[in-house]
Amino acid sequence: MDIVGATGGVDVSRGMAIEQASRRIFFGVATLLFAASAAVTIARCTSMSTMGGMPMPGGWTMSMTWMRMPGQTWPSATAAFLGMWVVMMVAMMLPSLAQVLWRCRQAIGRTGNARPGRLATIVGVGYFAVWTVFGMAAFALGAALATIEMQQPALARGVPIAVGGVVLIAGALQFTAWKARQLACCRNAPGHDRRLPVNVGMAWRLGLRLGFHCNLCCAGSTAVLLVIGVMDLQAMAAVTAAITLERLAPAGERVARASGAVAIGAGLFVIASHAFAFTW
């Protein structure tokens, strides 16, 4: 009995050591990926800031993000935006996603699957594929609006107030039951999901599902980022911090409401300041 007990203890200790080593490797790789994507994002944003923007009626500046460079085609402009967008999303979402993917890897490993790391990676790829599709839609909409605003000066003058309205609505969205449900989905994933992936196809579908729920949960924050400035490093840092805290902090819903209150205040300030300017 003592020999059996000792053998069992050795097996448990060995299993714990392997688990700890796997955890260190997993989060080490995630940290390197985050650092690389953040560095590329910072470099790209710094490069874009040196180009300035286009002064518009109403006293605001249109970012060059939504416009083609001289000699650039729309397909190449879209590809350039998507490349920047995906790298930026990795930097912004990985701090909160890494914990989800680790829980996914653990859950897959408990099913006896021999390659949980590979399936967890595919889940992550599926997740960012959804963000890529969203980026395509965002660029198409942003480029279309930029074209209209350049052709319609009267419409362009109202853009600052419209931006304030978007920020205000995004803040109010943080207080809704709908936001609470989406946030709960993201905070619990994939622990609540009994359909854990046992093959590549299931892992891909789980990644798509996680990405879809994450896009819904981040709808307000993403809208704020897009209207304030998709290449604004301060806006990116603030949105990243808000998303990460509401996903990982113990009181995630309170964090979401706090960030919503800040957004509501900012939106009201922007609307009031530009409305006052119009009266003069």
Written overview of the protein:
The structure is a single chain. The chain has about 280 residues and is mainly α. The protein has one domain. The protein is about 80% helix and about 5% strand. It has ten helices and two strands, in the order αββααααααααα. It has a two-stranded antiparallel ribbon. A hairpin with a 3-residue loop joins strand 1 and strand 2. Helix 1 packs antiparallel against helix 2, helix 5 runs antiparallel to helix 10 and helix 9 packs antiparallel against helix 10. The longest helix is centred in the first third of the chain and has 49 residues. It starts with a helix and ends with a helix. The model has no long low-confidence stretch (mean pLDDT about 85). This is Metal-binding membrane protein. Keywords: Membrane, Transmembrane, Transmembrane helix. InterPro entries: PpoB2-like. It holds the Pfam family PpoB2.
